[in-house]
Specification:
About 35% of the residues lie in helices and about 15% in strands. The protein contains 6 helices and 6 strands. It has a 6-stranded parallel sheet, with helices on both faces. Strand 1, helix 1 and strand 2 form a beta-alpha-beta unit.
Length: about 190
């Protein structure tokens, strides 16, 4: 099995629980992973603290964290061969910058690299309702090869906690990223 090199970006959109659950699931899938590079916006750190009441993102020592302006991070270049980028949650501002090729920080630069290299970009957008600008930006990113995976949970697995609700989205994201995982499958469990 070829191990994956993953970029995880966390923006300041509400939904830090998605990032936390994604981190927890990636730790469980470590046998399928060569590297996880993480970049968080300043707002992402503030939202995590506000929504989750902690700074536990600092506890994920298996991942390498990069400053939002570190253009020397390996995934700022296509030569590093990171195969998948997951932005969870993805703010509409970040999505707009990606859609229009504005690489003003490491998140938007990494997304630009992933798209130009024809690799996998998964944007877990977390906003509602969508304006026409949002919809057009989602269309543009999709036409460029990205995948828009809205943070819309499913409930047929009968989740019992907020984290279990978030996991319904994260499981879909991990499927889209090509991971082999145990998760609830409709009419299979």
């Amino acid at each position: 099995m070829i191990k994956k090199k993953i970029i995880v970006a966390i923006t300041g959109a509400s939904g830090s629980v998605y990032a936390k659950v994604l981190f927890d699931e990636l730790v469980k899938l470590s046998d399928q992973i060569e590297a996880v590079g993480v970049v968080m916006s300043d707002n992402a750190k503030e939202v995590w603290q506000f929504e989750l009441g902690n700074q536990n993102y600092l506890d994920y020592n298996a991942f390498t964290f990069y400053n939002k302006n570190d253009f020397n991070a390996p995934f700022a270049s296509g030569s590093a061969k990171y195969d998948t980028m997951i932005i969870a949650p993805c703010s509409m501002g970040t999505l707009g910058r990606i859609a229009h090729g504005i690489s003003n920080d490491l998140i938007s630069r990494a997304a630009d690299v992933v798209l130009k290299e024809r690799r996998k970009l998964i944007a877990v957008v977390r906003d509602t309702p969508f304006s026409l600008i949002h919809i057009n930006n989602m269309k543009t990113v999709t036409e460029a090869g990205g995948i828009i995976c809205p943070a819309n949970p499913s409930f047929y697995s009968l989740p019992k906690s907020i984290e279990e609700v978030a996991k319904t989205v994260v499981s879909r994201v991990l499927d889209l990223a090509g991971f082999e995982q145990d998760s609830y499958r409709w009419n299979e469990n």
